[in-house]
Design a protein that fits this description.
Blueprint (H helix, E strand, L loop, with lengths): L3 H8 L12 H13 L10 H9 L10 E8 L9 E9 L3 E3 L22 E5 L20 E4 L2 E3 L10 E3 L2 E2 L2 H8 L9 E2 L2 E2 L6 E9 L7 H11 L1 E5 L2 H11 L4 E9 L9 H25 L1
Parallel strand pairs: 1-13, 2-11, 11-12
Antiparallel strand pairs: 1-12, 2-8, 2-13, 3-5, 4-5, 6-7, 9-10
Helix pairs in contact: 3-7
Bound molecules: 2-acetamido-2-deoxy-beta-D-glucopyranose (4 copies).
Length: 295
């Protein structure tokens, strides 16, 4: 069960064409490995973040499933190199885009079928007007409103499968409690003699959000922070969270912040200088987390 995430890792080399199919030989390997388990599964999206983990020489197998990476930051109180551990994750990339002329009182397209909802706030584009011709926050914008939608999930125990909706996915309670003990951990704050304004820290935060949008826009980052109280912004964790939720597999996400998404920091070129530090810090936190798990 834990190896759901390894399916991705093992599958990559074996996918033929664009079908996204996991070959039967790969599936055979996975089930053979699974027989030796259960395992600790670690998801790392790219080599930049994987290298410090491999170089740490500290791989420890366990029965649980942490998740490691680094992400953009939506909380101006935090800085690059800080490591966040959110309690909830949501996928914020599923939208219902409302037609021009309609508003919060109007039902969305297909809402009456139970497909869409107006429960999870909305993004009103005219709130972000900037310029001489429409220097009025309430003036109309043809892009109108976007409403955030929960994901549809089919829990593995549903027989027959019944569609459910999920937006905020909590990390495992036990893992989150253990993560409290990571606060105060000493992390690196300098790269080649250039130091961050304060030493990075580990913080448990309320929420992180993911979507297939690279957020390099400060207005949208501030929106995500004010609407959802999101601190970490990334492109991966919600996928892991939703699968773990569906499979009833415990997970936690450890995200070192890579930048203040969309700029706004006093440190110029911060991701280029401190990106490697962020990756190293997330590995340090992960390794400490694993040792707490097994202690
Ligand atoms: C937005 O408006 C502010 C002044 O209110 C101005 O300084 C800024 O240049 C404007 N930005 C754009 C992209 O028009
Ligand atoms: C802003 O726009 C709204 C509607 O488009 C209008 O009712 C209001 O008078 C405008 N306010 C200003 C200060 O121009
Ligand atoms: C730090 O300095 C070393 C040696 O000059 C260099 O190879 C490395 O790329 C530098 N690291 C960063 C993150 O700038
Ligand atoms: C928002 O998140 C912060 C940091 O994670 C937390 O301290 C705060 O209580 C949250 N705010 C609300 C209204 O839940």
């Amino acid at each position: 069960m834990v190896l759901i995430l390894l399916v991705l890792a093992f599958g990559i080399g074996s996918i033929n064409g664009v079908h996204g199919e996991v070959s039967s030989s790969t599936l055979t390997k996975i089930s053979r490995i699974n027989k030796e388990g259960p395992y600790l599964g670690i998801v790392v999206p790219n080599s930049f973040e994987m290298n410090p983990l491999l170089q740490s020489g500290s791989f420890v197998a366990d029965q649980k499933l942490p998740y490691l990476d680094f992400s953009g930051n939506a909380n101006p109180q935090l800085q690059i190199g800080d490591v966040t551990i959110p309690q909830y994750w949501a996928h914020t990339g599923l939208w219902n885009w409302q037609r021009y002329g309609q508003g919060p009182e109007d039902e969305l397209a297909l809402e009456s079928n139970g497909d869409y909802t107006r429960k999870i706030g909305y993004l009103k584009f005219s709130d972000y007007n900037n310029g001489t011709n429409c220097n009025n926050k309430s003036s109309d914008n043809l892009l109108n409103n976007v409403w955030y939608q929960p994901e549809e999930i089919f829990p593995v125990n549903g027989i027959p499968e019944q569609r459910q909706h999920a937006f905020w996915i909590p990390v495992n309670k036990h893992y989150f409690a253990i993560a409290e003990r990571l606060q105060g951990l000493k992390l690196g704050g300098c790269v080649n003699g250039t130091c961050l304004p304060r030493n990075p820290m580990v913080v448990r935060v309320q929420r992180g959000v993911s979507s297939n949008t690279f957020v390099d826009n400060s207005a949208y980052r501030e929106f995500l922070n004010s609407k959802f109280n999101a601190t970490a912004i990334d492109m991966e964790t919600a996928a892991v969270a939703l699968i773990c939720h569906q499979q009833k597999t415990p997970f936690i996400a450890i995200r070192a912040l890579s930048d203040l998404a969309g700029g706004g920091s006093a440190i110029s070129n911060e991701a280029a200088i401190f990106g490697s530090l962020a990756a190293q810090n997330s590995v340090d936190v992960l390794l400490n987390f694993i040792s707490l798990l097994s202690s």
